[in-house]
Amino acid sequence: MEGSCPLIKNILILDSEGKRVAVKYFSPEMSTMSAQTAFEKSVFTKTQRTNARGEAEIIMFDNVITVFKFVSDLHFYVTGSQDENELILVTVLQALFDAISLLLRNQVEKKTVLENLDLVLLSLDEIVDGGIILETEANVIASRVTMRGADSDLPLSEQTFSQALASAKEQLARSLLK
């Protein structure tokens, strides 16, 4: 039965000029770069004059429901089909923003997002896969992205580069303090 599972068409993070910072597309009609760029330009142009600084705003255009929120110099968007539940889309948008806020220690701005793009892209993957919503709890998303809650003494081969670097720094600091 179609419509039984909410689906996300795409998640966008654009800068204050409408340029791509991080995006994830799940709909087949957006499979080409030109279609994606045109959509990003269109959604940015349609929303740039609104004041979505505090709460998320909802618009519908081109038969797509778009929920969006502006924070600092970034614009966050989540879209779904015209028959999708807006509250679910807003929940995904808020989960994305809250997870990124946790991971970036509330420094949600273009510079820090680009410096930590790996964490942002992993957050997108933890929230939605193939258009299907996997998780909307920001603490769970942030924990999965940083792999906390798993064994803290993972073998070096199973650690991400940033985890391995942090582990090496910690061991170096301990050896210097002895």
TrEMBL record:
Gene3D superfamilies: 3.30.450.60. The keyword Nucleotide-binding does not apply. One of its GO terms (cellular component) is Golgi membrane. It is a peripheral membrane protein. Keywords: Cytoplasm, Cytoplasmic vesicle, ER-Golgi transport, Golgi apparatus, Membrane, Protein transport, Transport. It holds the Pfam family Clat_adaptor_s. CDD domains: Zeta-COP. It comes from the Eukaryota. InterPro entries: AP_mu_sigma_su, Coatomer_zeta, Longin-like_dom_sf. Residues 8-150 form the AP complex mu/sigma subunit domain. GO terms for biological process: intra-Golgi vesicle-mediated transport; intracellular protein transport; retrograde vesicle-mediated transport, Golgi to endoplasmic reticulum. Belongs to the adaptor complexes small subunit family. Oligomeric complex that consists of at least the alpha, beta, beta', gamma, delta, epsilon and zeta subunits. This is Coatomer subunit zeta. It comes from Pyramimonas obovata.
